[in-house]
Amino acid sequence: MKIRSPIVSVLGHVDHGKTTLLDYIRGSTVADREAGGITQHIGATEIPIDTINEICGEFISKLAIKDTIPGLFFVDTPGHAAFTSLRKRGGALADLAILIVDINEGFKPQTYEAINILKMYKTPFIVVANKIDRLFGWETHEGASFMESYNKQAPRIKSDLDLKIYELMGKLHEEGFQSERFDHVTDFASQISIVPICAKSGEGVIELIALLLGLAQQYLTQQLEISEDAPAKGTVLEVKEEVGLGITVDSIIYDGVIRDGDEIALMDANNVVTTKIRSILRPLPLEEMRDSKNKFKKVDEVVAAAGIKIAAPNLDDVVSGSPLRVLSDQEDVEAELLKELEDITVDTDDEGILVKADTLGSLEAVVHLLKEMDLPIRSAEIGDISKRDVINASIAMDENEEYGVIIAFNVKVHPKAEDDLKNSGVKLFAGDVIYQITEDYEAWIEERKEAQKKQWLDAIIKPAKIMILPKLIFRQSKPAICGIEVEAGTIKTGYSLMDANGDYVGVVASMEDKGETLQAMPRGQRVAMAINDAVAGKDFEEGDSLYVDIPEKHFKVLEREFKDKLTEDEFLALDEIVEIKRKRDSDWGKLGLFEY
């Protein structure tokens, strides 16, 4: 039997410091180059036991940790809510987890989501309270242990930090966990350790790594045992072409052993692909899988947990996020993968928007988020945007304008499709930071709704009231022309007018002021008005107030949808109009049971 490195999944909210923590440990700057500062794909880093001993020094010997475990293998999972499916995969792989929380911001939506994943998989975890350097007045001590740095702080700073830790303990208690700051924990099996750190300066990292190693040794040794002959299981991180090697796959091997010459099974978008390994390459320790600056070292055998690159034929169509299995006589690996393919196939609707993404994991993640937004998806595929995609989105747009949309994560528009897209009217939301794409889409939907509401409101006849000015009747009839003042609301041409008894007076034919013809006139203005069907002296007198005769249907829409859009004077005029109408019909304008 062999002991493998425990897999440690790093979970947490956007920008709470997951990648920065690993950067400190491996001395790289991956976080600075991530799109939008957010890890968009799972990364993997191996920290060998020798490096851990160098980082932790005497702290390891104090905890009486033996060298039975070969090191720690970190999986850096994306932090945004959209990547639930990838995080579940990360959570499922993990033996241990770090839940990283900004000590100043506390729990955020994705923090709760990460906790739910950890609960689901019953994964032991440590809470890392990051960014202690941002506590007002904190004195930074590069690379120091937390206790060493904490003891050098002013009493007020210690008190501030203790309060923040208590707040985290309260949140964890609400989620069903007992917790303590790590140095106060009495039972690591039943209490969650909270380790305050600064990922940038490295303060507290010593205790964090030592605790992870101690927990793995104390509680996980049995599950870390693997047979030297157990066929490997893994996950494909990325498919890419390497000079001199052709198409390769970067993978995490999380169980068993993989050897040069093994036959392996993977997946393309629809089927299982089998191939024979031509060579296995492994990055040097501390190199990040996505960012290995040095050449890979060719190896004959790799034991989990490890990040490796595999060169083999027939990898062209393999998708990122695919399971990877070494073929075995003892089990039907292909059948197992086909079942997994069924489980992760994206369900689509008869109508809806189009989704494109660069990997299977990203596609699942985008679809998951859009489904949470109750958005129907007509098509969800991996790859760049093609002419066919634009045609399909145009068809969707003909059925419903809101569905004439392509959501594209980390993919390009094929050159042959660019002109078609520009001329189609299809709306493209694209980028390499998923939450930005979905926020832009939501903002567009909101703009459309507001524009539609304005359009509806403009079409609704709204309350208005005018007064016939004394001594300013210029023509008796055909049409009656008189001077008026708008007492409330805005009067428009085409509006029907009634008197204070609810009797029909006529229709506003036109309005003029100093020779200029006007379509609408607001409260407080005086104009000459022509009223069709009305006879001055019969239908109205000088000094009379006339009201816009609002149709009952329009009133109900106003009451239900746009009451908050009315001005105070429109409100008052509307009350008077309703009172006039209900003198004749007591039920006028009342909403029925199914109209609320």
Describe the structure.
By secondary structure, the chain is of the alpha+beta class. The chain folds into four domains: 2-224, Rossmann fold (3-Layer(aba) Sandwich), CATH 3.40.50.300; 233-343, Elongation Factor Tu (Ef-tu), domain 3 (Beta Barrel); 346-443, Translation initiation factor IF- 2, domain 3 (Rossmann fold); 465-584, Elongation Factor Tu (Ef-tu), domain 3, CATH 2.40.30.10. 32% of the residues lie in helices and 29% in strands. It has 16 helices and 32 strands. The chain has an eight-stranded antiparallel β-sheet. Helix 5 crosses helix 6 and helix 12 (387-399) packs parallel to helix 13 (415-424). The longest helix has 26 residues, at 434-459. The radius of gyration is 35 Å and the shape is elongated. The mean pLDDT is 85.
What structural category characterises the helix and strand content?
A: alpha+beta
CATH superfamily descriptor of the largest domain: P-loop containing nucleotide triphosphate hydrolases
Q: What would you call the shape?
A: elongated
Terminal CA distance reads 69 Å
Count of discrete structural domains: 4
Overall helicity:
25-40%
By DSSP (H or I, 4+ residues per run), the number of helices equals: 16
Radius of gyration: 35 Å
Please give the CATH class of the largest domain: Alpha Beta
Share of β-strand residues: 25-35%
Describe the largest sheet. 8 strands, antiparallel
Strand order of the largest sheet: 14-13-19-10-11-18-15-16
* CATH architect. name of the largest domain: 3-Layer(aba) Sandwich
Low-confidence stretches: none
Overall mean pLDDT: 85
CATH topology of the largest domain: Rossmann fold
Can you count the beta strands?
32
Domain Tr-type G: 3-223
GO molecular function, one term: GTPase activity
Keywords: GTP-binding, Initiation factor, Nucleotide-binding, Protein biosynthesis
Protein name: Probable translation initiation factor IF-2
